[in-house]
Write a structure and sequence with these properties.
By secondary structure, the protein is α+β, with helices and mostly antiparallel strands. The protein contains seven helices and eleven strands. The strands form two sheets. The protein has a six-stranded antiparallel beta sheet. The structure holds glutamic acid. Glutamic acid binds next to strand 10 and helix 6.
Length: about 220
């Protein structure tokens, strides 16, 4: 793989890894996310500068779902085409996604009985790579380790990375640049999520904010 030369700063917030490449420079997480209680939310300046999607995360002791949905609703005004949510409960990652309004996602969650994990993240997508479909909605997961990624921005060298990963046997389910990043983190994962994320981002060029969770390391 080509080395991008990017050297991310230490990216950990609480128990989730968060990075932002900003406008050609790496931005510390404090400038990227506003913290509101247990929630962290991509701040307006960066969200409006990059594109209009939204990211919300929750780390706490109560079920994350209602806090995450509330956060997404507050970000709806930015515009989006689809939405999704992931939580980890008893070491199991669950992802639910839907095209259209956050209320569609809510309906789907209700139909499925809801999520009870106390660690979670959610996303409203403004498609740049791949059409507006449920498969292309975030979060995206790797195919081995229960690693989920939500992403705001663009992975510019996703095509080369995808070819590299396909050659290694990974099968993609979406047309997005984001799934490439999830697979790459999974490919590089050897039991240390933070290390895998840092290694993956060294291979990536583009502008991005991401949140990553791993069911094997819910405490990271
Ligand atoms: N490039 C990603 C996609 O098309 C993320 C878009 C966004 O920032 O919402 O899924």
């Amino acid at each position: 793989m080509r080395r991008s030369g990017l050297r991310p700063r230490v990216p950990v917030v609480g128990r989730s890894a968060i990075y932002h490449s900003g406008y050609g420079r790496l931005v510390p997480w404090e400038e990227t996310f506003d913290r509101v209680g247990g929630l962290f939310r991509l701040n307006n300046r960066l969200a409006e500068g990059l594109c209009m999607c939204g990211i919300v995360g929750y780390i706490g002791t109560k079920p994350a779902q209602s806090y995450l949905l509330e956060g997404l609703k507050r970000l709806e005004y930015r515009g989006y085409d689809s939405a999704g949510i992931a939580t980890i409960e008893n070491g199991k990652l669950t992802v639910i996604r839907s095209v259209g309004r956050v209320s569609n996602l809510e309906d789907k969650l209700e139909d499925s009985g809801g999520l009870r994990g106390t660690l979670g993240m959610c996303h409203t997508r403004w498609a740049t790579h791949g059409g507006v479909t449920e498969f292309n909605a975030h979060p995206h997961v790797d195919d081995k380790n229960g690693i989920a990624v939500v992403h705001n921005g663009i992975i510019e060298n996703y095509a080369a990375l995808k070819t590299y990963l396909e050659d290694k046997g990974h099968v993609f389910k979406s047309q997005t640049d984001t799934e490439v990043l999830a697979m790459l983190i999974g490919e590089l994962y050897d039991g240390d999520l933070e290390k895998a994320v840092q290694s993956a981002l060294r291979e990536v060029t583009g502008a991005y904010a991401i949140v990553v969770m791993c069911e094997k390391e819910p405490n990271v």
